[in-house]
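pinging the channel bc i need a second pair of eyes. not urgent but kinda urgent?? the chain im working w is below, pasted from the shared doc
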Amino acid sequence: MKSPRFRDPRRAKALALSLFIGALAAVYALVGVRTLWGEWISAAPPVIWGVLLLPSAVRLRSGMLLAAIVLFVALTSEWPRLGPGAEPPTRTLRVVSWNIGAGNREWAKAVLALDPDVVFVQEGMKPAAIPEGYHWYGTLDPGTLSRFSAEVLPTESVGPWTPPQLLSMDLGGTKVLVANVRLMLPSVVIQLVNPFEEDPRKNYRARVAQYGKLAALLESTAERTGARAILLAGDFNVPARMPSLEPLRGFLEDAWRISGSGWGGTVPEFLPLVRIDQLWLSREIRPVAVRVVRLPGSDHRAVVTDLILESASEPDR
């Protein structure tokens, strides 16, 4: 004989959906990008699953299901860092990373309002006119606008997309390896765009491998060039908490997790749900303030980071 609680179809459906949410939480926490199907599930921001399941909680009038949804979103999402943003005692370096979007020809005018020292751009092009006091490095994607002169270093592919841009900058006597990247999208997104032309397993393997290859490239380049610090920025196309970024965590730190303030999401620009635009630093460079700002002309928001480099020299103009 069935238990009375399961005689009510609504209660049974609510329980089944609650168990499904528990399974989703396990995928995000334990599986993630470690498998192809895990990557396909966790490619969606957790709040999307919450929005999709919320009507069921209302229709079934289930407090249990509603609580499961809220708990799932709360535990798997990255929330705002509250409190006022810190102001550096002496600002020596302001770095901006921004996917400016194809066709945005006014990006330099928009970003210069932030008074940046170094600007990493992705999916963009060389500005029509280089602003006074700045140098431009790069061609299309990625490219770097900098008040500091830099040496362009040899690079290599870490995946099927554009190789990372590698630069060497002298910041106050400290030789810094600077890297600008736009990494590969989740294989499920690529598959949706070209469902009959793509191999999802091949794309998945390439995407997962790119993070380890990037870490190896940075470490070997830093050793070869004698760089004492590493600064990595760009569009990672993966939330910063995902396990696929583990190869970078061995020697770099996520600047937002140290000194971020406010809402950290960067895409989509009108309602930023995920933090895929990031800046990672070696322990020799310390972020004092990190924030996300809305600039015109792109579907991404920009990440603005103030760094402490107490002995930084004046830019080579």
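so The radius of gyration is 22 Å. and The CA atoms of residues 45 and 293 lie 20 Å apart. — does that match what u expected or am i reading it wrong
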